[in-house]
Structure formats: C-alpha cells, structure tokens
Design goal:
The chain is of the alpha/beta class. The protein has helices at 2-5, 11-26, 42-55, 67-70, 79-82, 104-111, 125-139, 168-174, 194-199, 202-215, 241-248, 252-255, 259-263, 272-283, 402-405, 426-432, and strands spanning 30-35, 60-64, 77-78, 114-118, 149-154, 185-189, 227-228, 236-237, 265-269, 291-294, 296-299, 322-325, 330-333, 347-353, 357-362, 370-378, 387-392, 394-396, 399-401, 412-417, 439-444, 448-449. The protein has two domains: 1-194, P-loop containing nucleotide triphosphate hydrolases (Rossmann fold, 3-Layer(aba) Sandwich), CATH 3.40.50; 213-455, no CATH class.
Length: 456
C-alpha cells in the first residue's frame, strides 16, 4: 500500500507527510495539527502514515472524535474508547485516562511512535489535556505528551464541540484552541482540493473558494447585522417542506426497499424538532403497518422516584420515548453496539420488527449485511439521579441533524433551514454537501447569520 500510494500524493500532501515523518524520526515528541478542509485528501494521507510506521516495525495508534470518523481510519477507534477517557470530562477539573500503568494498553502507549487523532476539532480541550497528563505519567517524562508525537487533524471552520445549553463564549472556551497546549502546536496545512486536482473543473474550484469565504466570515453581510443571502449556485431553492420531501424522496412508497436508493439520500436540519417532524411525515408514506415501541424506565434508587418530574426521563441524546417504525424505515444507531460494524451513526433499513429485537440491513460501511438490534438498558451519566432507560438505541433517519451528518455519504441531500443553524460550522457543513457532487435542495425560511467564530 505504501509504495503504491506514495506517488499519488499531491505536493502539499507530500510536504505534510515528510514533515510528520521527520518529527517522528527525531524522537523529540511534538504536537502537530493537520489543518485540512473537506476534500483535501486528509484521510488518504493519514492512512498512508498509519501504513508506513508499522512497515518499519513501529506502533501507530489511530483514534477519532466520533465513531463514524474512526471507521475511515485503518484500525481506527474512538478516542474515548482507545484512551479510556471519561465520558463527562466537564465534571472533573483535571481529568486523566483510566488506563493503569501496568496494563496492556499502557504498554502500547509507552512504545507507540505516533498517535493520530482525527476530527479533533469536535473534542473538548479537556480530552487533550487528559491525554497529556496520562502520557507524561506513563512515559515518566514531563515533556508535552510524554515525548510522543501526536498528529491532530480536522478543520476549525466546521462543527466544534457540542455543549448543552451553552453560549458562544462557552463553546469558545471548550475547544482546543483555548487550551494551554495550543501554544506548542505546529500547524501543517492541506489546501489542494482533490476534486479540482483530479477533474480540473473550474466550477468546483470557485465553489470551494465560496465555501472558504463563508467559513472565514468574508461573505458580504447586510447592514452590519451579520445577515447574508445564499448564492443561487449553492443549491436548488425549494418553496415548501412538502416539495423538499418530494424532491429528496420521490416515489418512496415504491422504492423504500431499494437499499442503494435509500442509503444515498437524507434531509438535514439543525435541530431535532425539525428532524422528528420530517421523519414522521416521511414514515407515513411507507405502505407497511406501523409498530410503536414505548420506553421502560427503572429508577436505581426508589426513594428518588418522587423527587423529579417526568420531563427528566427523556433527556436530549436519548432514544425517543415512543419509537414508531415500519418495515423499510431508515434508522440510525445512537449507541455503539459492535464497533466498527454497528457504531453510533450507522444507518440501517428495517427488515423485520419483533417484540425485543429489530432485524435490519446495514446501509453504510458493511452494506447489505443483516444484523439484529436488541433492546438494551441505557444509564445517562449527566442526570441528577440514576435511572435505566430500556429502549432500542435507534431513531428514524430519513432526516438527520447536521451534526450527525458528518461522516455520512449522500448523493441527494435536502437542507431544511426553517430553523437557523445555531452552532459554529453547521451552515458551512450543510452547504458543503453541494460541493461533494451531491444534488442539494434547500428550504429556507429563517434568516441566516455568519458563524460567530469569525470574530476571533
């Protein structure tokens, strides 16, 4: 693989590759950040490095901030799983990893030459600080990251860490650039868009420049209000929600069992309330009979059962308390069940509905493989009391949130902006689908604002 793919690198990929390999050979340890916008060949370059290092009888560890992103890396895993980080880092002032110094995982971290952390911009700064403290302890070395080279990769113009009920200042304080470690970072940049490089299409190059201007906050705004208009070449404007659904899912009543047709399309929206509304509308178009699964709750401490209202029983991020499904429904996993095959963000198509098990076909990754999804207990970690939530860890996925769309492969994308994007990078992410060779349709009724990060 290494000898085959090395000649295929672009000039900036080759420069980045040599820079990383030189730092590894010097054995001084360092933090490198690969600043790579979409379609610049970041994953190709990282996998080339992950193949090169083992060929020299060294160890390289590949992790990512999300499970979907980790499946794109050779032998990739989520950072929280591989590094055993706490799920709720915000609750600890100086978090560290749970890895014991005498464990096998500690031995791997002590001998590895490179740690790659993809989609790092989605992780909170405390995750990197926890890794720094852990590596110093495991290596008995007080240098940054214990003297081990770590390659971070991502794009700060895209979605940053999601913080519940947060203000813009909270988000800015949580992401990696606000960490003391950022001063030690060496930045490496990829700029050549692979689609433009391979196809030589000038229209794609202009589109990429417009997206970059949007992400950097350079598009002209109106009356100093940060409001701006979307240019007509970004996507096709649609007048109503009904028309949006019709364009993205035409004749779904006849095509819903065509897995290839179903996996390549979805409607994106900023908030769950918009997504849930569209999913229920599209579900009604399927001819099969609907089955409703209701959640079951069990309080760990019975004395606390009367202290909290029922609103606490269905917090954000949990499976819906009433799950309506039909055979042929597009669904998405909300928990890791069997990584990397069945991970958070995997889309499937329902084949059979049973009392305690759902049979479904995988639409992403290991396509067309039939799997069984059990009803499992889930214990939320960020609640004032402990309770078990018994439900299938899935939700309908005809429509998905913009954050969940990261890492998905689509050819037909609908964009519902009845509610404006509320987080940095969401608008850039959703408009970027049009650049990926995707037929994009947009329903826009809300006014659009520039991402707030541009003001830094």
């Amino acid at each position: 693989m290494v000898e085959t793919n090395k000649p295929r690198q672009t000039e900036d990929q080759r420069t980045a590759y040599e820079a990383v390999m030189n730092v590894i050979s010097e054995e001084k340890g360092d933090i490198l950040f690969l600043d790579a916008p979409g379609r610049t060949g970041k994953t190709f370059l990282i996998n080339l490095m992950l193949a090169e290092i083992p060929s020299k009888r060294h160890i390289a560890l590949a992790v990512a901030s999300s499970e979907i992103a980790s499946t794109l890396l050779d032998v990739g895993r989520t950072a929280h799983s591989a590094l055993q980080l706490q799920l709720n880092l915000a609750q600890t002032e100086n978090p560290v990893s749970k890895i014991s110094k005498s464990s096998g995982k500690a031995a791997i971290l002590q001998t590895c030459k490179l740690i790659v952390w993809d989609a790092c911009t989605m992780s909170k700064k405390k995750a990197f600080e926890a890794l720094d403290r852990t590596m110093r302890h495991l290596q008995n070395d007080n240098r940054i990251i214990g003297g081990v080279v770590i390659l971070l990769s991502g794009d700060f113009l895209q979605t940053l860490p999601v913080i519940s009920m947060a203000t813009p200042s909270d988000e800015l304080n949580a992401f990696f650039k606000a960490s003391e470690l950022w001063q030690y970072v060496q930045r490496i940049t990829l700029t050549n868009n692979m689609r433009v490089h391979v196809l030589g299409d000038i229209s794609y190059e202009n589109f990429a420049k417009q997206l970059l201007s949007l992400g950097e906050g350079k598009l002209p705004t109106k009356y100093a209000s940060d409001l701006f208009s979307i240019q007509s070449d970004f996507c096709v404007s649609i007048p109503s929600l009904k028309e949006l659904i019709r364009h993205v899912f035409p004749v779904i009543s006849n095509k819903y069992k065509d897995h290839h047709w179903l996996c390549e399309r979805a409607i994106l929206a900023p908030k769950n309330e918009n997504v849930n509304k569209m999913n229920e509308i599209i579900l009604q178009k399927l001819p099969e009979n609907s089955i409703t699964y209701k959640f079951v709750e069990a309080v760990m401490d019975k004395e606390q059962a009367v202290y909290y209202p029922t609103e606490f029983l269905n917090p954000p991020g949990m499976p819906p308390h009433m799950l309506n499904l039909k055979v042929g429904s597009s669904i998405m996993l909300l928990r890791n069940l069997d990584t990397p095959k069945l991970c958070n963000g995997t889309r499937l198509c329902v084949s059979k509905l049973m009392a305690n098990v759902i049979q479904a076909t995988i639409l992403t990754g290991d396509k067309d493989e039939s799997v069984f999804i059990p009803c499992i207990p889930i214990i939320p970690s960020d609640m004032p009391f402990e309770f078990k939530h018994f439900q299938f860890s899935v939700r309908l996925a005809f429509a998905i949130t913009i954050n969940k769309a990261q890492g998905q492969s689509l050819r037909v994308a609908g964009i519902n902006l009845e509610t404006p994007s509320f987080s940095h990078g969401q608008l850039l992410n959703v408009l970027g689908w049009g650049f990926q060779g995707i037929c994009s349709y947009m329903l826009q009724t809300a006014r659009l604002k520039m991402p707030f990060i541009r003001k830094l």
